[in-house]
Design a protein that fits this description.
The complex is a heterodimer. By secondary structure, chain A is of the alpha/beta class. Chain A folds into two domains: about 120 residues, 3-Layer(aba) Sandwich (D-Maltodextrin-Binding Protein, domain 2); about 90 residues, D-Maltodextrin-Binding Protein, domain 2. Helices cover about 40% and strands about 25% of the residues of chain A. Chain A has nine helices and 13 strands. Chain A has a five-stranded mixed β-sheet with strand order 5-1-6-13-7, with helices on both faces. Chain A has a five-stranded mixed β-sheet with strand order 10-9-11-8-12, sandwiched between helices. A three-stranded antiparallel β-sheet of chain A has the order 2-3-4. In chain A, strand 2 and strand 3 form a beta hairpin. In chain A, helix 2 crosses helix 8 and helix 2 packs antiparallel against helix 9. Chain B is mostly helical. Chain B has a single domain, classed as MetI-like fold (Orthogonal Bundle), CATH 1.10.3720. In chain B, helix 2 runs antiparallel to helix 7. The longest helix of chain B has about 35 residues. Chain B is flat and about 70 Å long. The relative contact order of chain B is 0.16. Chains A and B meet through helix 3, helix 4, helix 5, strand 10 and helix 6 of A and helix 2, helix 4 and helix 8 of B.
């Protein structure tokens, strides 16, 4: 290729298109949800990480993160009198960020487990969850054990995956761990997996979303009750105390219940 | 750092290695065949054929592999299945993986073939034609064998690129090697052991491919 006018033309084209796109995209600022109330102690802004792909707990809407957990955390910050800044990190980088210190607090429907407690500190719980099994409407499945030998979709590294591993082994061939819950539900409706196991909040949300599809949700009583908590780096008592203080306040004044009703009422 | 997790999850890794090798091998074979026809299409005298093949190549070379995988797995295959076999289950992720890798490889292979074929002196074609061969026969007997030797290094590179690209299939839960490592890392919260193990396996595989397979082929088909 001759470097000359052609080269110049393509450069001009690229720059032109770039400027156009930038023009269109301005105002599409990356999210930073409304922080908590100002005031309180010091001016430290706590970075709150989340994986905004778990509706209705945390989701991306246009250019901002929203959802049950987001409202809860904002209310806690307001009640506890500290400032927060939101960051949509994704699930794995959230834990990584806590380790590295780029994220102070994690709230992402994180179930309080013994294993996680070894590495991180949890706040008090703000939500009680249990696992549900999503199967076809005419499926004979009534409990987890019935799924033996079948393909089960879960979100990798969630408690849904843990119950399957506990029941069928760590390297169970039928276990499909997806990056996010919507993908596994997608593949369930595409018939690629026979069942999906996940938290009640998320799966119930889908029930309301896809009314035209045929499926049912099953509760297996052998599943342990689960509690969601906020997570901080081990030993970060400063953030932990503030969170628990705020959480206690919104539990007492009914704000937590109010947020819950907003998302899960009559479901 | 707890290296015992590798042993605990060895089944996942072994299954992952098998699937990775299988995916790469099948996609290379399919991609080479498809790519050959697409490259011939690109050089055809029929405009429609030429354009179709050019658009195909541009599409697959100009978009990220990850986007292609997501599109094919979550959108294209379920729709096609919905039309062909209403009510039936879509094929599994591994199948989407084969399709995505093969189609992607075909686009790159087409360009490798085109370059290889066009690098052969046009006099070769003319000589073959003047001996009374028709175009197809001359292509098969005279041009392609010569072009093939010149293309081997590039094909080897594509083979290796495919092997590495197959790791992207983890996003659709294809049980390949990267899926295994990611799954172990997420479940055990161990970072170094699974990812280092995975990296080492990929390294061994690519070295084996470039040193043994490609060198061997080059020796076998070398004209010198």
């Amino acid at each position: 290729m001759r470097i000359g006018t052609n080269w110049f033309k393509s450069l001009a084209l690229v720059v032109g298109v770039g400027v156009l796109l930038a023009g269109c995209g301005s105002g599409g600022q990356q999210t930073s949800g409304s922080g908590g109330a100002s005031g309180g102690s010091g001016d430290k802004v706590y970075v709150v990480g989340t994986d905004a792909a778990y509706p209705p707990f945390q989701m991306l809407e246009a250019d901002k993160i929203s959802g049950h957990d987001i409202d809860v955390m904002n209310a806690i910050a307001e009640a506890g009198g500290f400032k927060i800044e939101w960051k949509n990190t994704g699930w794995d980088p959230l834990f990584d960020g806590l380790d590295k210190g780029t994220v102070d607090i994690g709230i992402s429907s994180i179930t309080i487990t013994e294993k996680r407690k070894e590495k991180y500190d949890f706040s008090d719980s703000y939500f009680e969850a249990n696992q549900l099994i999503l199967v076809a409407e005419d499926s004979p499945v009534t409990k987890l054990a019935d799924l033996k030998g079948k393909k089960i979709g879960v979100q990798a590294a969630t408690t849904g995956e843990e119950v399957v591993k506990k029941a069928f082994g760590d390297t169970y061939e039928g276990l499909k761990g997806y990056d996010d819950m919507p993908s596994s539900v997608d593949d369930f409706f595409n018939g690629r997996v026979d069942a999906v196991i996940g938290d009640n909040g998320v799966l119930s949300y889908y029930v309301n979303k896809v009314k035209d599809k045929k499926f049912k949700l099953i509760k297996d009583d052998s599943f342990e009750k689960e509690f969601y908590g906020m997570i901080v780096k081990k030993g970060n008592t400063d953030a932990m105390n503030k969170i628990n203080e705020g959480l206690k306040k919104i539990k007492e004044n009914g704000k937590l219940q109010e947020i819950y009703n907003q998302y899960f009422d009559n479901k | 750092m707890d290296w015992s997790v590798i042993y605990d999850y060895r089944e996942l890794f072994i299954r992952g290695i098998i699937y990775t090798v299988l995916l790469t091998a099948v996609a290379t074979v399919c991609g080479t065949f498809l790519g050959l026809f697409i490259s011939l299409g690109k050089m055809s005298s029929k405009r429609i054929l030429r354009w179709t093949c050019s658009i195909y190549v541009e599409l697959f070379r100009g978009t990220p592999m990850l986007v292609q995988i997501l599109l094919i797995h979550f959108a294209v295959i379920p729709s096609i299945w919905g039309i062909l076999y209403p009510g039936a289950n879509s094929p599994e992720a591994i199948y989407s993986g084969f399709v995505a890798l093969s189609l992607n490889a075909a686009a790159y292979m087409a360009e490798i073939f085109r370059a290889g074929i066009q690098s052969i002196d046009p006099g070769q074609m003319e000589a073959a034609r003047s001996l009374g061969m028709n175009k197809g026969l001359a292509m098969r007997q005279i041009i392609l064998p010569q072009a093939f030797t010149r293309m081997l290094p590039a094909i080897g590179n594509e083979f290796i690129a495919l092997l590495k690209d197959s790791s992207l299939l983890a996003v659709i839960a294809t049980p390949e090697l990267n899926y295994a490592a990611m799954n172990v890392a997420k479940s055990t919260l161990e970072r170094y052991p699974p990812y280092l193990t995975e990296a080492a396996v990929y390294l061994v595989l690519t070295l084996f491919l470039s040193r043994v397979v490609v060198r061997g082929l080059e020796k076998k088909y070398s004209t010198r």
